[in-house]
Amino acid sequence: MTEELVTRGDVEAAAERLDGVVKRTPVDSSRTFAERCGADSVHLKLESLQRTGSFKIRGASNRIAQLSESELDGGIVAASGGNHAQGVASAAAAHGADATIVMPEVTPMAKIEATRGYGAEVVVHGDVYQESYARAMAIAEERGATFVHPFDDRAVIAGQGTVGLEIVEDVPDVDTVIVAIGGGGLISGIATAVKAHTDARVVGVQTEGCAHMSESLERGEVYERDSIDTITEGIAASKTEEYTFRHVRERVDEVVDVTDADVTAAMALLAERSKLVTESAGAVALAALVGDYLDVTGETVAVPVCGANIDLTQFADYAKAGLAELGRYRTLRLTVDDWPGSLGAVAEAVEGAGATVDEISRLPPRSGVDPAQTELSVAVEGSGPDHLDRVVAALDERPEVGTVD
After folding, report:
1. pLDDT tens readout for residues 201-212
2. Residue 181 confidence class, pLDDT cut points 50, 70, 90
3. CA 247, CA 143: separation in Å to the nearest integer?
């Protein structure tokens, strides 16, 4: 018999079950993003401030709270790129159950260590999530443990749906809700709650390098990608599952695919304008607005910012990449006669043009360059493309700087 889709009642029951267990995260209105995309208002649902740093604790806690004593005694197993791992580990610890989490080899160390910090045993296995999933299923069978799926589970979807329930309570006039898609559990739950209370449009977003849902919708059946190539490891699933796909097919209005560059731009803007550090997957939904993929003119828009678990060095790299995508960060190649005597002139020219030198490095010699000269790589941050063009012009006017490429 085909399992019934998650209902409004399931989500409301999950909300009662999770009361006092998870945070009711704030909604932050952003005039900056509204002006950028032409919306009447944009509201950021800050699940990045949730316990464990993402929404995943909602679904995991709702699932584990419904296990029997014997199931808890038998232990819990999960597979995850990081956020579901921490949600399961935290929820298992709260119920006195042992948890084993299988994580892909590409998982950032910050997420691995955080999962261990919640008391779980971590097994690092597999190049992609599907390999980790297969190993986790094998461990669960070997130990007789309960496997908690990250998205293809009724209780998990209902738990994630509490994000949507809070959105419609806090933004009752919402016209469009934009949600990142990995496996599809979050958008399935949010769409269930939103459609039960409003006529709002629900839009899903994936990055091109892991997009499977748009192809699945076009084919009318679950499609699995052969490979994944994206910086958004938190949503890097190669496919959805049939139960989750049914929710998306029936309750989601549209799915768009953005680029990794769009994601880094969203990350940079979130840090600068909203003072939020997010992981790459956490900025995917907003990237659809930053990248102008949707017409939301005059609308009230809600966007879950769904995760903040990222290594700070990686965040810094992505933020710089985002500034470059926005035309505010550029790396110049300079050829100078006097090294290191010309460094002062370079810094003076850049700062005199009102920009900032982020980094200067000496490049190794290469064919075609006069060995009496030195090439420099100079990373410069400014307010936009025109401003950085003025910086280049200022450098060109300094004879001691040499040539600028």
Report:
1. 999 999 999 999
2. very high
3. 32
